[in-house]
Amino acid sequence: MVHKSERPRGRPRAYDPDQALARARDAFWQGGFSGTSLDELAAATGMNRPSLYAAFGDKRALYLEALRRTKDGLLAGTSAAMAAPGGLKANLELFFGKAIDAYLAGDGEARGCFVIGTALTEAVGDPDIKAILHETFTGLDSRLAERLERARAEGELPADADVEALGYLLSAAVHGLAMRSRAGEPREALEGWARGAINHVTSLRRA
Amino acid sequence: MVHKSERPRGRPRAYDPDQALARARDAFWQGGFSGTSLDELAAATGMNRPSLYAAFGDKRALYLEALRRTKDGLLAGTSAAMAAPGGLKANLELFFGKAIDAYLAGDGEARGCFVIGTALTEAVGDPDIKAILHETFTGLDSRLAERLERARAEGELPADADVEALGYLLSAAVHGLAMRSRAGEPREALEGWARGAINHVTSLRRA
DNA sequence: TCGTTTTTGTACCGTCTTGCACATAAATAG
DNA sequence: CTATTTATGTGCAAGACGGTACAAAAACGA
Prior knowledge:
The structure is a homodimer of 207-residue chains. Chain A has helices at 17-31, 38-45, 49-56, 59-83, 88-104, 114-122, 127-153, 163-182, 187-202. Chain A has 207 residues and is mainly α. The first copy, chain A, has a domain at 67-202: Tetracycline Repressor, domain 2. The first copy, chain A, starts with 16 loop residues before the first helix and ends in a 5-residue tail after the last helix. Chains A and B meet through helix 6, helix 7, helix 8 and helix 9 of A and helix 6, helix 7, helix 8 and helix 9 of B. Chain A binds a DNA duplex (30 and 30 nucleotides) through residues 7-14, 37-39, 47-51, 53-54, 58-59.
């Protein structure tokens, strides 16, 4: 007889893997990789250590998986913001606005960006983390530069605009917000810096 | 009789406090605060744990002292670069060049900026670290904005240039280099981004 | 009902961690 | 030379840490 459900043979899981990974990411997000113990991860996910280990491997593998997922989400969100209807300024406002919301999300203190706030510290001596950081940076750069190139072609930017340099500046600008939000800067300050960066780029005149 | 030397009464120290603090900073710089043990700090400084404890207090106090000194040095170096002879472009080239040299310094892998690379992770829940981060960011912003304002007054920048926004962008640009160097980007890439940012700012025309 | 499979939960192991107690060493003061 | 002062170095205590062994539990197949 064919099975109606594909439920596997043994005892069912007491947790949802995606949700558990998100909770573990939240724990790492707050305390960093080295600063978060397996006990805290178990408490955050509601799982006990052996289940964590069976589901995700060791602490580092769990962290790397959370990091990869976050990177993919960041890049997908950036692509979506750049493809949204409206001109360059509207796209950038959406992009920076979503970023600020993410950096200030959560109940307690602002945690900034998960990647920037936790992976940089662990990067020295860890090629896997370095690779994820590299993909995050270059992925963001290229998506921003592509959108700026389109704006240049459509006349929203000067014909001689250096879209690579502008892409780097905007990328650095949003990462600056990630850092400063984690350092405790209030939303109004973050929004002011974002507004300044967007206005600067969208009011350029030809040299 | 008046003492010829001011050497205190007891057994002399076997270490130089400034040098020990610098070595401890280097250890933290590589592994972060949580990722660096007292054993590693003792090995790096050549001191044993009780001497470390007597000299600097506990691990956190040692880290905070290293962080404060680094922040003060960063701000002093920025002031110096902005006051160096030459125009805006020369000052910015000096500023970015010194930053890149510092980010790539050391024998092994690049470690980026000590403050950015280690304090961000520890900032959540730690008001002291947040305060040092805040002083670092605002100190850098204001020094850059001051120099840009002078350039504007001297005609090197358009009269309607938003020096606050440009100061934030340049600050974010150099912090971007700090992040990317720690992520493993080669010197040539860092220099390219720096050149793009400097050229962009120093070739602005009035809107 | 009984065996099989998979997950759960307790309990544990060896190691590393921070921080300190205490005896010893090296200097000065008299 | 002796007392005093300060720093050193061994060594330890109490607990946190990452990771796992093992038995009980909860599902399915027959």
